[in-house]
Design a protein that fits this description.
This is RNA polymerase I-specific transcription initiation factor Rrn7. The protein has four domains: about 5-55, no CATH class; about 70-245, no CATH class; about 280-335 and about 455-535, no CATH class; about 340-390 and about 400-435, no CATH class. The chain is built from 18 helices and seven strands. The protein has helices at about 70-95, 100-115, 115-120, 140-145, 160-170, 180-190, 200-205, 210-215, 225-240, 250-260, 270-280, 300-315, 335-350, 365-370, 375-390, 410-435, 470-480, 485-515, and strands at about 5, 20, 25-30, 35-40, 50-55, 335, 440. Strand 3 and strand 4 form a beta hairpin. Helix 5 crosses helix 9 and helix 11 crosses helix 12 (about 300-315).
């Protein structure tokens, strides 16, 4: 039998390349009939080999197209608007924000949306046509994701800016929430942020170019300090472009929350109110602030800095005995900072009851942690991974029903509620324990130069390395509560103490020389005020 060499057969894994003709049909050497090929006999039998005709196959579906140019830009803004709506809706429905919060977010976004009209019109008409090959890297928009926060090079809003916009809406409504609250809710999944691309409809996702997907995809965990910078830059944008004036923080509530979370005596509340005018703090964002970021200009940093200074005045971290004049003074109480640090560690441990299922704890899991997990903890972690990272919008394999995943949303919600209850109970326990551990010091009435009084021998720490072992846990906990780094808090406290030093020097001159000095301590900058907050990194 005569064989003809052609391409690989491919049927049932057959790799045969030799074929023969039988009754006008092509067969491979192993007997597989070749579909779509047949030999028709000539009417005059002139050519016994016949001629080959091919049966047309159904046209394959074209690859899903992705938009480019203006069309892609408009789609991205629609996707970003959908993310904002989902975030504001989650805050209203799950976190108890007032219903008007969604309207404020919508109005702020409407103002911000006007700035993109000219940018979209600048795109060329040729880029309006959709392209079928979207795997090629785009250079015109990739630079925007690497641009620094708040600079003119940032063309499109980033995902972290959505949190900043929600915070500004809460600020306008004077809600007692902090930047760290928004950071914690985003990390814990209480509002859409981590893997938010999964919540976008697949029809919109498939048509969005890759460089836009990279903007709204989370590649790394954000830090609360970067969110502080995003809020300051966005607020400056609204002020400069629309002349918007934002109110001061609802600082009485925030101050009470900070003091309560740090398990400090409530006497610090009145002390912070007295320190506020001396330090030149307004507890509001500066109007139209541009240029380098200085942490002492952030109102929430101003609050915690005031708490730290008041704490150092009344409850110092050394063993030096100081005696108040009256038993009514706050400094009559003495804090054992070793016990205080122990209570804070116990609070952190009790607040994370539930193993790796605690909200926001799965993101910090490492390879070493996985090796130490129990079977139940591994199941909890894999269930979280499945809910967060698997895309269920795709068509499932027919065999998938034989391997059920057992996703239970109610269980995850119950776990989240139990975590919040654990934190609430742990906080009350820490407050009771810390209050019961307060001691009283000796009271020495009358004026005596030789008697050390509260506030004397005040210690200043200029850098993180200067912190003693007794003060470091307090500074670390305060920095975490405020959403800033430890080095940022130490430098901000040092700058504020420098202002107090200048104020005291001015008061001494007035007393000794009778020369009233009109010094503005809130705006005068020194060499210590040149410390800047870190810029946010690409991909956040």
């Amino acid at each position: 039998m005569e064989y003809i060499t052609r391409g690989v057969c491919g049927q049932e894994g057959c790799r045969e390349t030799r074929y023969y003709i039988d009754n006008g049909l092509w067969f491979c050497r192993r007997g597989h009939q070749q579909e779509g090929r047949q030999v028709e006999d000539d009417a005059d039998d002139f050519n016994p080999s016949g001629r080959t005709s091919r049966i047309k196959k159904a046209a394959a579906e074209k690859a899903q197209r992705t938009y480019q140019g203006r069309q892609a830009s408009r789609l991205f803004l629609q996707v970003y608007q959908l993310i904002l709506w989902k975030q504001s809706s989650a805050l209203v429905q799950s976190r108890g924000f007032p219903p008007e919060f969604e309207n404020v977010v919508r109005d702020l976004w409407a103002l911000h949306l006007n700035t993109f009209a000219d940018q979209i019109n600048e795109l060329s008409e040729q880029e309006d046509e959709p392209r079928f090959f979207s795997s090629q890297p785009a250079s015109s928009f990739d630079e925007s994701t690497e641009a620094k926060l708040g600079t003119t090079r940032t063309k499109w809003p980033r995902l972290i800016d959505s949190l900043a916009l929600c915070y500004l809406a809460a600020l306008l409504m004077r809600l007692p929430v902090s930047v760290e609250d928004f950071h914690r809710m985003a990390i814990r999944g209480e509002m859409p942020f981590i893997r938010v691309i999964k919540d976008i409809p697949r029809e919109m996702r498939d048509r969005l170019p890759q460089h836009f997907i990279a903007i709204i995809e989370t590649t790394k965990l954000i830090r609360a300090e970067h969110l502080h910078g995003a809020v300051a830059d966005l607020l400056s944008y609204y002020h400069n472009r629309f002349d918007m004036k934002f109110p001061a923080l609802n600082w009485p509530f925030l101050l009470y929350r900070y003091i309560r979370r740090l398990a400090l005596p409530i006497d610090l509340y009145a002390a912070v109110k007295r320190l506020r005018p001396l330090l030149g703090f307004s507890f509001e964002y500066p109007k139209g602030a541009q240029g380098r970021r200085r942490p002492l200009r952030l109102p929430e940093v101003q609050i915690v800095v005031s708490i730290v200074i008041a704490t150092k005045l009344f409850f110092p971290f050394d063993d030096y005995n100081r005696y108040p004049v009256s038993s009514k003074e706050p400094s009559v109480q003495v804090i054992d900072w070793a016990l205080w640090a122990q209570n804070q560690r116990l609070f952190d441990r009790e607040g994370m009851i539930g193993g790796w299922s605690g909200k926001g704890k799965q993101l910090a899991v490492t390879e070493k942690d996985i090796l130490d997990m129990t079977p139940s903890q591994m199941d909890e972690y894999m269930n979280w991974y499945e809910r967060s990272w698997l895309d269920h919008s795709k068509a499932q394999n027919p065999l998938a029903e034989f391997f059920p995943l057992n996703i239970n949303t109610n269980e995850s919600q119950t776990a989240g509620t139990s975590t919040e209850d654990n934190e609430r109970v742990a906080l009350l326990t820490m407050l009771r324990t810390s209050t019961s551990q307060l001691k009283l010091t000796k009271v020495i009435a009358g004026e005596s130069i030789d008697t050390p009084r509260p506030g004397s021998a005040y210690a200043r720490y200029r850098t993180e390395a200067d912190l003693p072992d007794t003060a470091r846990p307090f500074f670390e906990t305060t920095a975490k509560v405020a959403g800033v780094s430890l080095s940022t808090l130490v430098r901000a406290v040092s700058q504020a103490e420098h202002r107090l030093t200048r104020w005291l020097e001015g008061q001494r001159r007035v007393e000794t020389m009778g020369d009233a000095l009109d010094t503005d301590f809130s705006t005068e900058d020194s060499e210590l005020d040149d410390y800047d907050m870190p810029e946010s990194e690409p991909g956040e």
